[in-house]
Amino acid sequence: MRRLPGPEHPVGGGAQARAATAHPTTPRRNGLTRPVRCLVLNDRHPLPTDTLDHLSDALEAHWVQTADGGLDPAEEFRRHPDTRVLVTTYTDLGAENLRLLPELELVVATTTAVEYVDLEYCRERGVAVCNTAGYTGAAVAEHAVALMMAVAKRVVPVHARVRSGDLLCAGEQGMELAGGTAGIVGMGGIGARVARMVRGLGMAAVHANRSPRRAEGSVQVELDELLAVSDAVFLTLPLDTATHGLLGAAQLALMKPSAVLVSISPNEVVDSGALTEALRAGRLRGAGLDLVGERNPYPPLDNLVLSSRFAANTRECQERRRRVWAAAVEAFVRGRELPHRIV
């Protein structure tokens, strides 16, 4: 299997450099070469099928897309066992499925999170994995702030009452955010953008992060302190063993009853049962969640605003995403260093 240039195997000089940058086509018995077989497997928002056309001289792309979440990866892998490059979105890439692709050399996740990929299997088998880090730009941070606003200002229930003819909306009251504190859990690129945005609303910002992280205009504190002092708590962190169930009943109990919880993290970061109970009991003002998972674990509640994998669904964001994942495929085909390589 060709050793790919990347973090573990940087391109050096001599024979190693020539091998790493050679055109990755496979010789046929008749002396000709065949293009790299690429499978694009996607059952989410459709990916533009002309994205890889500029690589048609060296890449044979097979597109399998649906919009209903009904793809069976094992079935598709059996149909395309000679796949060397796999481009996919939230597909079950556990070891059992990946074994069906014996020639696989590169997985390109069209998402930032890669919890659905068995990274250890890929590492052991020499399969490179790239994600699409950095494509979200301002879109996800804007959506997080919009969820905060929708909950704090009771936009959804007020809208429903006005549409039904109740123009007074007696008993409804919004929450003023200026002068309050926003707590950001996970100070990465998105968290930093959220911090800048809430400061523009007149809020102070604090953040919690598993490692020391400086952020302009924000003070790092421990998680328990953040939960206790914040009027709005933002979860902007990925799912891993350390963040699974990070916010349970004990953590939610530390929050102010007047506080708003916002999450753009995978569903499993929050204990959905504990959050549902807190919302029903009025122990939180409300929550705004962009669900990232296979189901909605929450019942209808008028202090809960939901979207589903919608935070990054803007025209500008999707165009950046397309460029990022296509660049990884092109780098492989042209024998260049892989961008955003994590394995």
From TrEMBL:
Residue ranges of the region described as Disordered: 1-34
Domain D-isomer specific 2-hydroxyacid dehydrogenase catalytic: 47-342
Composition skew (Low complexity), residue ranges: 16-29
UniProt entry keywords in alphabetical sequence: NAD, Oxidoreductase
GO terms of molecular function: glyoxylate reductase (NADPH) activity; hydroxypyruvate reductase [NAD(P)H] activity; NAD binding
Listed InterPro entries: D-isomer_2-hydroxyacid_DH, D-isomer_2_OHA_DH_cat_dom, D-isomer_DH_NAD-bd, NAD(P)-bd_dom_sf
Pfam family, one: 2-Hacid_dh
Gene3D superfamilies hit by this protein: NAD(P)-binding Rossmann-like Domain
GO cellular component: cytosol
Residue span(s) of domain D-isomer specific 2-hydroxyacid dehydrogenase NAD-binding: 145-303
Family: Belongs to the D-isomer specific 2-hydroxyacid dehydrogenase family.
PANTHER family: 2-HYDROXYACID DEHYDROGENASE YGL185C-RELATED (PTHR10996:SF178), 2-HYDROXYACID DEHYDROGENASE-RELATED (PTHR10996)
Listed name of the protein: D-isomer specific 2-hydroxyacid dehydrogenase NAD-binding protein
Species the sequence originates in: Nocardiopsis dassonvillei (strain ATCC 23218 / DSM 43111 / CIP 107115 / JCM 7437 / KCTC 9190 / NBRC 14626 / NCTC 10488 / NRRL B-5397 / IMRU 509) (Actinomadura dassonvillei)
